[in-house]
Amino acid sequence: MPPTDDDVKPTTQDHWDEHVDLLVLGTGAGGLSAAVTGANEGLATLVLEKTEFLGGTTAYSAGTCWIPNNHFQRAAGVTDDAQVAGGYLDRLVGDKAPRELRESYLRNGSEAIDYLDGIGVKFWHSRTVVDYHPEVEGACLGGRALEPQTFDGRKLGRDNFSRVRPPVPEFALFGGTMMVRRAEVNQLLTLLKGSPKAAPTAVKLGARWAKDRLSYSRGTRLAMGNALVANLFHQLLQRDGRVWFNATATRLRTDGTGRVIGAVVAYQGGERTVRADRGVVLAGGGFSSGAEWRRRYLPSPTPQYTRANEGSTGDTLSLGQAVGGALSEPQDDNAFWFPSSIGRRKDGSTAVFPHIWDRSKPGIVAVNAAGRRFVDESVSYHRFVRAMYAENPITPAVPTWLIIDSRSLNRYGLGMIRPKLPKAYLRKYLRSGYLQSAPTVRELAVRIGIDDAGLERTVADNNRYAVTGVDEEFGKGSSPFGLQYGDPQHKPNASLGPIEAAPFYAMALLPTPLGTSLGLRTNGDAQVLDAAGAAIPGLYACGNDAASMSAAEYPGAGCQVGGALTFGYVAARHAARSARSTTSKTLTPVEIS
Ligand SMILES: Cc1cc2nc3c(=O)[nH]c(=O)nc-3n(C[C@H](O)[C@H](O)[C@H](O)COP(=O)(O)OP(=O)(O)OC[C@H]3O[C@@H](n4cnc5c(N)ncnc54)[C@H](O)[C@@H]3O)c2cc1C
Is the distance from the beta carbon of residue 29 to the nearest atom of ligand 1 less than 6 Å? Predict the structure, then answer.
């Protein structure tokens, strides 16, 4: 945006309440990566967090990072360079997002991880996680995904630990107070099957948790996204970085040249001005929780629920726009998706439960209002919801119904319902309407208001495929992606099983954004661009605040957290290299509202 007359009006007043090098808005993977990198590069860094908790949606996430050519791959001699991974992205994304962004991602992603590793933010290799489009050339059948190492929350001290956003209760044990890694969940589940092998792990985890509970509100052994944000927070504090909680930037300030030089912040009941000499980083997490943004940019029917954090309402995007930042070109859906079931917790709060793995299990089908399938149930959550939206105008598929029989429900669980759940507990879900049941498939269809003959036909077809091991309609159980979450013990196909044991059950799924892909346009240095494509000096965006490098395509597990870490790192490195702003002595800061 060109400077206005007001911008350059001379003034004697040049007051700032705080003066830092780098000001970061938001404490998710993007914001904390920028902040830690900035602080590590010697920049005086202040982070603002709008809510009372640190970590945003990242704290709820698995923390998986999609990083092609990571150090684990390199050590194993795997070639996953710009040609292989870049080719995959090119084929998947095409011209939906600027090539410059994915080139920067591939160039800087593994470098960012190495940098963070070097300062104590460590990862494990999730070497078996398959990319989300294994049918596209260049996809990786295992190797690009990283998992944050567990983190000991006690290192933060009690007060700072209490600031870390607690995990999604349904993704943790004992009412959300005990975090376990996914690998540990799988191990612990074998206890239910009568295998004692996991008993030592269970005892060790349980003992640590019980000890923690004497002094803390929850277990301090953090895993997944929680471990990532807590560790980044720790590293930031070690480098004298500061975080203000319940602090919302309400306006950005520019100097007479259009350079962003700070922000006005609502904090502790008043207004504070913060000067940032090297730059301001927008990392507010996009707009998954912004009702008006969702209505405007997400497909119809507009999703009403999200598992994203409540702070990501799009206001940081508006701040960027107000100083001339341009949004990326809207696409068909502008978001990344989970199909979620909506339940109620004991305390009356709403549980939005993402169905990530259960759709791949044998003995489960997903149907539209005609009682018919319309997709391979075992595709990625993102592709599944896209299929729901594609189907909906033809035959209503919002909600989509998962249909399962009592044997599979007992064996695998479904949504919030854990495997081997005693009948008395199951009744609770039936009473609340989270789960519907009937003695026959026909009656189940009538109960949930879908076509009964259609559902009967679907179940009969499914039962035939379960015998042959071949899904003749959608190929469920034929893709390496879906099969990784099937039941390897189940034959002849790990993802195809009969639906025949009464009673029969149904659960409704709705589209819910887990992150948004439409955001501020940036260049490969994470600088925010104006409508003409020029970088706005002093302004950066990363995470969901920046338009996704892959548009609304989802290449593989962890591309959002991976992207947020990468571009946060890129932004801070660029800011650290850039010239210190010197305009404050001569020009007034201009408030943009
Ligand atoms: C259950 C779940 C699991 C997921 N698992 C994964 C995964 O394993 N891998 C992956 O890649 N993606 C995953 N995702 C998606 C991913 O977590 C998010 O897209 C990503 O974490 C967003 O990071 P971010 O830094 O942009 O924002 P966030 O982590 O959402 O952080 C943004 C922060 O900014 C704050 N904020 C907003 N506005 C302001 C303001 N004006 N001033 C100050 N602060 C502000 C917010 O309160 C929030 O704390 C998952 C999502 C969910 C819901």
Answer: yes
Distance 58 CA to ligand 1 centre (A): 4
Cis before residue 589, ω within 30 degrees of 0? no
Nearest-5° angle of CA 83, CA 86, CA 90?
120
Predicted TM-score (pTM) of the model is 0.94
The tokens of 315 are what?
A: 């206001």
Quick check: 369 and 380 in contact, CB under 8 A? no
Beta-strand runs (E) in 294-418: 335-344, 350-354, 364-367, 400-405
Find the 227 Cα to ligand 1 centroid distance in Å: 14
3-state secondary structure 387-418: HHHHHCCCCCCCCEEEEEEHHHHHHHCECCEC
DSSP 358: G
Instruction: Write the burial class of residue 227 (CB in 10 Å: 0-12 exposed, 13-18 middle, 19+ buried).
Output: buried
Q: Is the pLDDT of residue 138 over 70?
A: yes
CA–CA distance, 73 with 68 (Å, rounded to integer): 8
In three-state secondary structure terms, 4 is: coil
Q: Quote the CA–CA distance of 39 and 31 in Å, as a whole number.
A: 12
pLDDT digits (tens, 9 = 90+) for 102-126: 999 999 999 999 999 999 999 999 9
Tokens of 567: 């571009």
Q: What is the DSSP letter of 556?
A: S
pLDDT of residue 582: 64
Unique residue bearing structure tokens 């090098």: 21
Residue 225's φ and ψ, nearest 5 degrees, are -60, -35
Q: For the residues of 488-531, what is the DSSP string, one character each?
A: TTSSS-TT-----SSSEEEEEEEEEEEEE---B-B-TT-EEEBT
Angle between helices 224-238 and 29-40 (to 10 degrees): 30
Predicted confidence (pLDDT) per residue in 510-545, tens digit:
999 999 999 999 999 999 999 999 999 999 999 999
Exposed e or buried b for every residue in 368-391, given b needs 16+ CB within 10 A? bbbbbbbbbbbbbbbbbbbbbbeb
Statement: residue 8 has pLDDT above 70: no
Pocket test for ligand 1, best of 51, 58, 544 (most atoms within 8 A of CB): 58
Structure letter (DSSP) for residue 183: H
**Residue 209 is which amino acid?**
W
Cα–chain-centroid distance for residue 419? 25
- Of the CA atoms within 13 Å of residue 241, those in its CB half-sphere come to 30
Residue 102 CB neighbours (<10 A): 26
Query: How many whole angstroms from 581 Cα to the centroid of ligand 1?
Result: 30
Query: Are the C-beta atoms of 496 and 377 separated by less than 8 Å?
Result: no
Contact 513, 305 (CB under 8 A): no
The Cα–Cα gap between 29 and 284 comes to 10
